[in-house]
Amino acid sequence: MTCRIGFLLVPRFSALGFLCAAEPLRVANRLAGQNLYEWKVISHDGAAVSASNGMLMAADGALADIASDHSFPLDWLIVCSGFSPLDGLNRKADSVIRRLAGIGVQIGGLDTGAFILARAGLGRDVRMTMHWEALPAFAEAFPCLQASSELFEDFTTIFTCAGGTASIDLMLNRISRLKGAAFARRVSEQFIHTTIRPPAAAQKLPLKSGQASHNRILTRAINMMESVTDRRIAIEELTRTALCSARHLERLFHAHFGWGVSQHHRKIRLARARTMLRETDMAIADIAVACGFESRTNFSRAYNVEFGCSPTQDRIEPDVLKFSAD
Fold it and tell me: How far is CA 209 from the centre of its chain?
């Protein structure tokens, strides 16, 4: 039986995430010698949709029309988004998505699609994942939902993915469920995708600093810093995790980065603050607290030193990427 899929493209969607989801389905059909999958490209109004890279993708129809098209009953609806996902669809679209879920259509989200699923009232009983860069904004916008950093989360009725090339792994997982692991490997090989990654595979490398990534002490310390961004970490906590003395840890940071332990953690917290500043509607004072700064004044001073502008100036740049539950 053919699985019918709708790819709902949201303005500024990730073209890579979408294509990495669609192409495994095409290859699966070719290798199987039959249409295991059929799909349509959908937009909220039936018009062509522009991806974040400027590519214009034609749509086969509008969401409301295809959702009620009895000649193409959907089995899956996959929301493909990227920057500013909640700005690209209105509440009427949320209602259609919710109705489809209610009649048994499996609902998926790629990249930042989890934001749209969450606003539509889905995902209350499952974990949902998204691109790592959007995780802090999702946690702030939907604090009652379970945000995940997995490559993908597949609960059958609700499935989400970090986007990018992780869309291949999600689809291979679903193809394997239908046709078996050996068939999924054949599909994977067509993309020179030599390893089908499990959901728990990391979205990003823990370190991006060359030789520092080979130092286990630094790796342990920085991983802890990246997991604790809502407060300052005492040096004693870090040394217990890193399994070294405070003096040795300071010496390592200065040797590899040119600055000390506390400054490195401050840079990580400021980077998170910048993401939240640009991608959410949170008040600057609230962002300061969420990133471990005692006051807005201290936060603004540190931000200016790090980025050369104030938080307010950074927020009003022309290409702001917003996530908001409202």
Answer: 23
Alpha-carbon span 21 to 120, nearest angstrom: 22
Is the CB of residue 80 less than 8 Å from the CB of residue 13?
yes
Task: Give how many domains the chain has, as a whole number.
Answer: 2
- Indicate which CATH number applies to the domain containing 57: 3.40.50.880
171 and 47 in a common domain = yes
Sign of CA dihedral 283, 285, 289, 292: positive
Residue-number span of the structural domain to which 282 is assigned: 210-315
Asked if residue 294 belongs to a domain, the reply is yes
What is the rounded distance in angstroms from the CA atom of residue 288 to the CA atom of residue 15? 33
Structure tokens at 281: 């509607």
Residue 290: count of CB within 10 angstroms of its CB: 20
- Evaluate whether 42 touches 66 at the Cβ level (below 8 Å): yes
Specify the pTM: 0.77
Does residue 227 sit in the same domain as residue 306? yes
Are the beta carbons of 137 and 147 closer than 8 angstroms?
no
236 touches 215 (CB < 8 A): no
Residues 6+ apart with CB under 8 A from 200: 150, 151
Q: Are residues 179 and 44 in the same domain?
A: yes
In this structure, are 44 and 154 located in the same domain?
A: yes
Burial of 258 (0-12, 13-18, 19+ CB in 10 A): exposed
Q: Express each pLDDT in 81-108 by its tens digit.
A: 998 898 889 999 999 999 999 999 999 9
Examine the domain organization and report whether 183 and 288 are in the same domain: no
**284-297 residue pLDDT tens:** 999 999 999 999 99
pLDDT in tens, 257-287: 899 999 999 999 998 898 888 777 789 999 9
* 53 and 173 share one domain: yes
How are beta strands 106-110 and 76-80 bridged, if at all?
Answer: parallel
